[in-house]
Amino acid sequence: MIKSFQKHYHLMLLPGIILLIIFHIVPMFGVIIAFQHFNIGLGITRSPWIGLENFKYLFEIRDSRVIFYNTIFISTGKLIAGIVIPVTFAVLLNEVRQAVFKRWVQTIVYLPHFLSWVILADVLIDMLSLNGIVNQLIAALGGEKIMFFASNEWFPWIVIGSDTWKDFGFAAIVYLAALAGIDPTLYEAAEIDGATRFQKIRYITLPGLVPTIILLATLGIGNILNAGFDQIFNLYNPVVYPSGDIIDTYVYRVGLVQAQFGFATAVGLLKSLIGFVLIIISYRLAYQFANYRIF
Amino acid sequence: MNGRFGIPMARIKKITFVSLILALVLALVACSGGNGGNNGGGGNGNAGGGTGGTSSQGDDGGGSGSETIDPYRMPNPVEFTTFKHLGANAKLPEGDTVEDNQYTRYLKEKANITVKILWYASGDDYEQKSKLAIGSGDIPDVFVVDEQTFHTLAKANQLEDLTEVYEKYAAPLTRELYASTDNKALESATIQGRLMAIPNIAVQADSVSMLFIRQDWLDKLNLDPPKTVADIERIAKAFVDNKMGGDNTIGLSASSSALSVPMKSARHDLKGFFAAYNAFPGNWVKDENGEVVYGSILPQTKEALGKLREMYAAGLLDKEFAIRKEPDQEVIAGRVGMFFGPWWSGGVLRDTYANHPDALFKPYLIYDDKGQVNNLQLPVSQRFVVVKKGFKIPEAAMVYVNTFIRAERKAEPDAAKLDTSITTEFWPIGNPTFDYADAVERKSEILADALAGKINPDDLIPEMRILYDFAKADEAAPKQDLAGWARFYGYTEPAELLKHPMNRIQNEFTITTPTMERKWANLKKLEDETFVAIVMGNKDLDAFDQFVKDWKAQGGDEITAEIREELKQR
Predict the structure, then answer these.
(1) How far is B421 from chain A (nearest CA, A)?
(2) What is the ipTM of this complex?
(3) pTM for the whole thing?
(4) Taking CA atoms, which of A212, A238, B79, B423 is between 20 and 30 Å from A96?
């Protein structure tokens, strides 16, 4: 009885598994070009084998350090801002008593999540250009105009900031759900004890959110080498290569624009390997601190 | 009946054994004539090699002389597959599709060829998709590739040898166009004596970068037109200081990729600026000793960058050039005083005039300190029609190209019915240009002669007749029909400048070497970063010297040696 019940579930998994095999497992075969001097005319089967040469070269060039540093800097920034802001927002919104206002705010802030970076990047570039609204404001206040997208000091922060702006509303949904799960009797008890609003947040709401925060943070570690290709690709230019070029944009330029498929694959493969290790670590951490288990 | 460079049509219809013999005889005459009017010693050697091929081919032709070869029509219906580039903005009339439009129908009717388009894409998407397709060995029967891909495919033995096909099936008009390049085009598609592709013919006019300047501002300020870079600086300063285009006046515009020089002039490049310093960053040019060197590391480039840096600091060069995505918009908004662009920049002028009826742009050439105009030429061929190895009917590609050329040159009555407002990219395999190398100059002369009454307008080929009609209408009512004006404008003032004597410089090496494949992305990044930082003042001008050192150490020297070696072997 129980056996056939399980079969049912396994059968329902099948479409997903098939997609996974076709689009994720089968293409894995292609990683061998990371070990080849890949020639597009010769193809995968006939290109000469060069072992680890592509990886060696990766560690020789000065760019590697920069792009790995940029990637980790930007995605760490995104990870931290991506927790602090939505949590703050969710807690604040949770305190709002007017249901209509609450729903309006929530809808408005998660709207940008559904816009693509191709569009948002143009809007952002326009807003932050020399004659854009931000610089007009700065000039009106007597400040000196700043060329945001040509400044290596500003660029990573714009990337982190705009990404957070785009997604914090959406991320807050998870925290709002967690907040809804906190036992209301705790608040009632606190009220009877005479706790202020702030104290209730400090001693009930935040501790109630901690497992969710830890869970999302540790799972985010596995993604730390993904700093957001489509965002940066649409925002950057050669001036900000030193601060904004990440692994994915580099792989794109080298691999697809310059057609060095072998080398680009090597970079990508290395990224995946590190990502794989990080996912294992983060899973362990999530298990330890948040009691999260998949298997 | 075809006017100055038209082709007698009767000849086209009867391509038989006789014409093959004729070609053979002509070739022999050219060969025995010592110098067939072409060029120096090297050229003759090549011409000799070429005729060797012809004569052996002539024998083949004799053997199969009984069958009639029509270079414009396949005897039986043929279908081949392809994929191609198609611009994102290309438009078709209602009801037509990429697979079924006036060009595909024309091709089917005239050449008996249908083309199955596997897919099409635009811009970067096309680049990526085609590279992936080629990489996975998934290539169509007939398609267009760039020089690099052509060499890669040929080396990998994936292409059909077209030597015989060309000899048998190339139409006289096709041959004439190739002859206008001194046969350099065919040479560029020849590998180890075999013709491995049908090369296109680049129109050299596209290489010239001219300075378009707001003549109305110039006149208002009573300034002399520019001749040198110093003039550009002076004029830009006057424009900006007098706020000719408002508070945000841009003296000289530039695009984000302007710090390396393209062979094909693009709007808002700085090709003409660099050329005035004899600098060609991003290209492999000959130094004074005749050795091939990389233009970006030469002192001239440093000098030009130094001047750009000064102009940037003084606010004369667009402050935001490095991040601007659409510099054209600034021109159209009436904020730009000067920009470099190709002869066909009329479209932007049209949009500017529509917004600012008082505006007037005039093109100028910029001279170097010796008083000459330097211009980096296009390679004779940049795009190659290739045929997949093993494709059974390779002559279909040649017949296709013959038909395409004849139709584009309007050397066939029905071709005149094709709507020229529909981009030629809708031809089934896309749009490799096949034209006389000096086609723009030729057309501009015809137009001028017709307007001066030296040629009867009724004798013009349809393509020129359209331009003539637009120009006539504009004479009667200047700039009333801006769309029509933009169509012929390029053949007037800008084309006149093309005839100016120029010091013609070649990019000696346009493909990649093994080390380049490995290290170029890195070197290119180093260059882009350094140059833009120098111009924008984030780095000292002397950072250039460090760049040269780094560039050489990080593989530049190695690549230079490889290129010199490969050029010696050619």
Answers:
(1) 30
(2) 0.73
(3) 0.73
(4) A212
